[in-house]
Amino acid sequence: MVFSIAQWHQRYMQQAQWSASLRAYLYSRVGMRPSTKVLDVGCGTGVLEKELDNRFRAPSVGLDIAISALDFAQSYSRASRFVAGDACSIPFASQSFDITQCHFLLLWLKDVRQALCEMSRVTRSMGFVIALSEPDYGGRIDYPNELVQLGTWQTQALQQQGANPFIGRELRALFHEAGLINIETGVMGGQWAKTEPKSEFGLEWDVVCSDLSNNSTFIQQADQLKQIDQHSRDAGQRILFIPTFYAIGQVS
Predict the structure, then answer these.
(1) Based on CB atoms within 10 Å of each CB, which residue in 95, 100, 174, 246 is the most buried?
(2) Is the preceding peptide bond at 144 cis, omega within 30 degrees of 0?
(3) What is the CATH number of the domain that holds 83?
(4) pTM (2 decimals)?
(5) Residue range(s) defining the domain that contains residue 28
(6) How many domains does the chain divide into?
(7) Can you list the pairs that 77-81 forms with residues at least 24 positions away whose Cβ atoms lie under 8 Å?
(8) Angle made by CA atoms 104, 106, 110, in degrees to the nearest 5
């Protein structure tokens, strides 16, 4: 299954919803205000740019290598600027921004250290570099137990796609190696208080099916696993927890 840009946009909005409370904390910590210049590396379809404009009127720039995503982003967040470019060779002068951030990006990069060095370079002295959310599938928890294998398969699928599904635990070390100071790292908590909308469940399973489209064993069991997943959610039993880390540091 190949996602359209509109489908990816829905996925990015879902991810942004997951980390909304964490962003509120981090943006408060850095004193986000209308004059704050923000670069969002790996911006996708502009979900976070729209938020920055709506909440803070902050002048943000989104950077991504996917032209189709940038075209969508420009129409979605018209007040923001979008630029094509690589995280490992950011096309801006040194000390151009107050904050340089990324969101569910580092796990996909082959050279995370170079990307963080570039993010630091384009950030002013005592400005902030922030990894807003990076997962660690090595700590994934699935319940009921019949769904544990699903997590194992997804982790393997991410690795086959070239991702590092264990990037979350590495953030603190990576930020230190990039020369950042006053580093804080942490992990988002999990709350399960209500049944999620069926649209959320459907989107999640679209991603699962896309990730595991080459897994013949999954394909044979997909309908049964989806039914177990749906039933356990309806019964208030489902637990799915993927530790998601953040890191924030300042440029010296």
Answers:
(1) 100
(2) yes
(3) 3.40.50.150
(4) 0.96
(5) 5-250
(6) 1
(7) 77/46, 77/49, 77/50, 77/53, 79/49, 79/53, 80/46, 80/49, 80/50, 80/52, 80/53
(8) 140
